[in-house]
Structure formats: structure tokens, C-alpha cells
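Supplementary material to the annual report.
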Amino acid sequence: MSGDNQVYQLNPMFRLQWEQAQDCFVLLYPEGMIKLNGGAGEIMATIDGERSQQQVISTLEEKFPGAEGLADDVREFIGVALEQRWLEAKPV
Amino acid sequence: MNASEQQQPGAPFWLLAELTYKCPLQCPYCANPLDFAGSGAELSTAEWIRVLQQGREMGAVQLGFSGGEPLVRRDLVELISEARQLGYYSNLITSGVGLDEFKVADFRNAGLDHIQVSFQASDEEVNNMLAGSRKAFDQKLRIAREVKAQGYPMVLNFVTHRHNIDQIDRIIELCVELEADYVELATCQYYGWAYENRDQLLPTRAQLERAERITNEYREKLAAEGNPIKLIFVTPDYYEERPKGCMNGWGQVFLTVTPDGTALPCHSARMLPVEFPNVKEHSLQHIWYESFGFNHFRGYEWMKEPCRSCDEKEKDFGGCRCQAYMMTGDATNTDPVCSKSPHHNLITEARQKAELIGSDVQPLLFRNDRNSRGFCKS
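Predicted assembly:
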């Protein structure tokens, strides 16, 4: 279970990019592309290698007031992203 | 079939820029066309830049620089810079011949995202490495280290065929020693020169099964060691009973531009009796959405039986048009890989040949200008 104090960053093998033509964020890697749905894209874009998980949650809660269950969604998504190696824990 | 099934295709996400047919190597498994020597003049830098711009406007994201050997082009750094400015994720697909630490750094500074180095497993250098020669290995290791030091993902592509696939354990160990992030162990597909040399290249089923088993063993071992290296094993479709959904469908995702500007939905389509447009004369927008060639096999209307009524047609689109043409003489036929194809015997016969092949087969035809001219129409 990822901790709220942990800072995460994008795995340097991936590049996160907003694609106008697809109206979504994508993760780019050698010869491949992963389309991120709205929520996933917002979360990835907020993870900057500086913010802790809690700070990511707070930032998104400010941006999307009234979004129910946002904190859990963020934690769950980060768990998935870690498994997929899109994200890594920032080394201290 | 109703007309509404013919949908407008999405954007061409993947643009392959085949910059040149020139290459210092002569790989007998090259997918380039046999008659490449008769190809027209290469596109200029300005022409390529226009292609890149148009592609990006249409939503292309992944860009491959390939060939022949793209390192041969003197404007490569300029093209890489342009690609970066346009927002592409750029991939350099290279043999590594002529690559040194300085070029690796130059490309990085210009904004290249990824270098895929292919190993030519029949290359003396690689054989030396497999046999333990330090010198050849040290040179590749230096480049590999520089690739990583520059922050690239380290991707190695190892072309496997019947003459090297039995050494797959040593090949994997070599890639691990070179500290690759991704390793593609790819049995070559049979197009162009590879098709010409197919009987000499196609492994037996037993060879493939053994290689896959060994790859799985290494995957487990490496995972247990905490090594994040990813091994990808690609088998030839000749041992399947259903064909691949070639290119994710004709003119759906991939757009290839060849050295003289001919635009194709895949790198081998020029062999088909279909006219394809040229970027010198038409915009990429027109080429992708309106040209005869790109529309020719979109949708399902062109299909014959058994594809036409098949409930899997939306999954594999009847397989590969080029393969159907090369093997049956008619590009609208079912890909012979499919066990439903009336020509499936062509595939089973190829497998049988692979079992029986001895030392008295015709020698490999090496990919070079002189051999290519023999295939050009006068």
C-alpha cells in the first residue's frame, strides 16, 4: 500500500504528453503509446517528482472540488502505475 | 455488409520514415524490397521536414527513422531536431554500424528519444562476441553504456533465425551484460530479402519451442534477481493457425514513407499491384484519407470468402495482403497462415521444408545493390 508521504516520479523511460489530436494524455515509450483516460491523465500530470502522494491528492481535490472518492482513486491508480512501472518512488 | 461499416479511419499514430535504402550491411533477412536499387532519388531534407510537419498535424506521435541504414543520412541530426520540436516520440532504428559515443550524445542533444540497435547475428562481430571476443564486445558495451548514460531506454533487437536461435541463451546473456532495458528476440518476418531467403531462415517448430522455453526460464531467473530487463519473444506467424492482424489493419495506424517519397500502409506494400501516392505530389492528409492505395483494403468490402463471412475478420482483417499476394498471387486472398485459407498448404509445406533442410540448399542471397539490380525491371 503506497504511503501518502511518498514522492513519486515518472519512470524516465516514459514521456507524458498531452495529445491535442486525441484529446487526452498519453504515455510514450520505445515504439509504443498508452492512452490515459481523463482521470489517469490528470493524476499523471500532477505527479512531478516533487509532490508527495498526499500533495497530489490535495492538488487534485482543489482542481476537482466535489469529486467523490478522489483520494482513493488516486491511491489506486498510483498502485497500478507502479506495477506497470510507469511511476517509480523517487529515490531519497 | 452495409455501407456504414466503411468508417473513416483514425489518425496515423505511427509514422515510419525510411530515409534511405543505402546500408553498409548485406543482411539476407532484410525486409526492404528486392528491387530497392531501382528506387528513385531520395527525398531532400526539406521534403522530409514537410512530411514530418504534415504527419504531426494529423496526429502522428510515434516516429521511426529507418531505412536501409538511417545513420548514412547526413541530415539526421536536423531531422531529429525537427521531430523533437514537433513533439514526436522519435525512434532511431539502426544497425549501429557507424554509431559511436559522440553520435549518441549528438542525437540526444537534438532530442532523440530512443535508439534501437539491431544485432546482425550472422555478423562476424557478434559471432566473436558470442564466442567471447573481448574487443568486439567492448566496443558494443561502450556504446551501450553511452546510450544509457545519455538517458535513453536501452533497447536491443536481436534477429533470430534457424542458424542462431539455438544460441538464444548466450544471446540473452549478452543482452543482460550490455544492460539492456528491453530485448526483442525477433524471428524475422518473411518479406523482401527475408522472403527470398525464407527456406534458409525459417526455424523448425522444435527450435522455436526450445527458444521460447529458454526465454521463459531467463525471464523467471532475471525477475527473481530483481533485474527489470524485459525480454520480448516474437515468433513467426508461419507456426500459427490464424494470421496476425497485420499493421492493426490496412491504413489504420501505420504510415510508411519510403526513401523516394512513395507512401505505403506498410513497408512491403509496394510489391502489390496497387498504385500508391508520392509525398512529392500529395499532402499526407490526402494520402491517408483519400488516396486509392490507402483506401484499397480498408473495411471489409474487398474480402473474398472465407474472410467475408468469417466472425474473426474484425480481429485479424484476413491477415496480411502482402503475404497473400506473395504466396498466392492474389492480394485479396486469405493470408495462407490462416488454417481456413484454401492455400494453407503453402505454409505447412514451408514448415516441412524447415524440418528437412540440409546442407545442400541454395546459398543465402545477400542484400546488396548488385543482387537488387537483378530484380529491377529494365
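Chain A has a mean pLDDT of 93.
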